[in-house]
Input
Amino acid sequence: MKGKIKEFALGLGIDDVGIASVKDYKSPKSPNLESIFPGAKSLVVLAYKTLSNCESNNMQIAMSGRLDEMQFTRSSNYRVARFLEKELKAKAMTVPPSYPLHMSYETKGTIGDVSLRHAAIAAGLGNFGRHNLVIHPKMGSRVIFTAMVTDLDLPSDPPVTEKLCTDCNLCVESCPGGALNEEGKTDDMKCLKNSQPYGIGGAIRFWTKFAESTTEDQKKMVKDVNFWRLYQAGFIGFQYFCFNCFKSCPVGQNES
Ligand code: B12
Output
């Protein structure tokens, strides 16, 4: 069964596939999988090597690469889930690769319904590095993940036991916001300020100022580039302006 799933997924051009039994998925901050999918037994996790766009200092090019990847990864996730349902007569639910995210004062939109890093680790696709990203044994840090929850009773793939992070500290040094200074924790707000300057924080600041301004100043505010950038980020979804921790990691960069 696992072989059939992997053969189908790899045939779509997905770089790697791992399978985790729900028993081995341990993400303390995420909701229980049973609350999402009663009777869930396994996770199928797909790994994709990202393009070199993230290296560009041109943020339109960098983000456009991510959008290409997200389009391919989302459609691949759907196709694998359909394969499970149609060919293997399983029940499968895809999980959000990025958004929608649960919005609440407690989580501030920083906790996914399924943690893809914890799922990837449980599925034998790598382990955490100093940047709190999952490093894949061959592809390194420049991987993104999608996954689906299924009712197929499948055993987990073997975990990656060797340490993949080389402790070079380049990710920590290259973070403009100091978001990685504390080991084992990403300071989300410090990261967000730099990586998504036109995200929710920027939108709240803009609209608060807008509400307090005169009609004349409001007219000026919507003709300002700050508003145009917020507008663009709004329809893109999340527009990243920083990929430093992701691109600075040297692990696996000599492999294709
Ligand atoms: C919300 C979110 C964010 C938020 C909050 C991040 C966070 N603290 O989790 C912000 C906006 C800051 C963010 C930033 C980025 N993100 Co993000 N993000 C997510 C999302 C949607 C949910 C993450 C989540 O649920 N976190 C909450 C819980 C699960 O995390 P946690 O238990 O607190 O664990 C944290 C630490 O405790 C630590 N940790 C936990 N256990 C252990 C154990 C050990 C041994 C160690 C060392 C660390 C460690 O790691 C976590 C980081 O803070 C996921 C997609 C998904 N659904 O999983 C993508 C995801 C995690 N992001 C991803 C990426 C690529 C990024 C960025 C590089 C952005 C970019 N430009 O591409 C940065 C990297 C920031 C970083 N170095 O941590 C990828 C990671 C791929 C990978 N190779 O690991 C994911 C999986 C998206 C995907 N589809 O692939 N992200």
Observations:
- The mean pLDDT is 96.
- The pocket of cobalamin is lined by residues 27, 29-30, 96-98, 101, 110-112, 114-117, 128, 131-134, 141, 143-145, 184-186, 188, 191-192, 195, 240, 242-243, 245-246 (CB under 6 Å).
